Amino acid sequence: MRSALLATAQAMDEWSEAAQGALAPTPAELLRLKQSLQESRATLTLWQRRLQFWQGIRRMVFWVKDRFYPR
Length: 71
Hints:
Oligomer: single chain
Structural class: mainly alpha
Largest sheet: none
């Protein structure tokens, strides 16, 4: 009985190690994920700058309106 339990425990450990190796991302996959994140960050930065630009234009329009066309 004890040897059967030890064999089962050893088989489970071996299966666990094999499964972790199979599920771990490969270096190529990690590199693709990193590049994708960098592209997403660059795109987000670009859109943030565009938003800031148009918010500045909007603020300027309201300032001009309030300055030259008071109520």
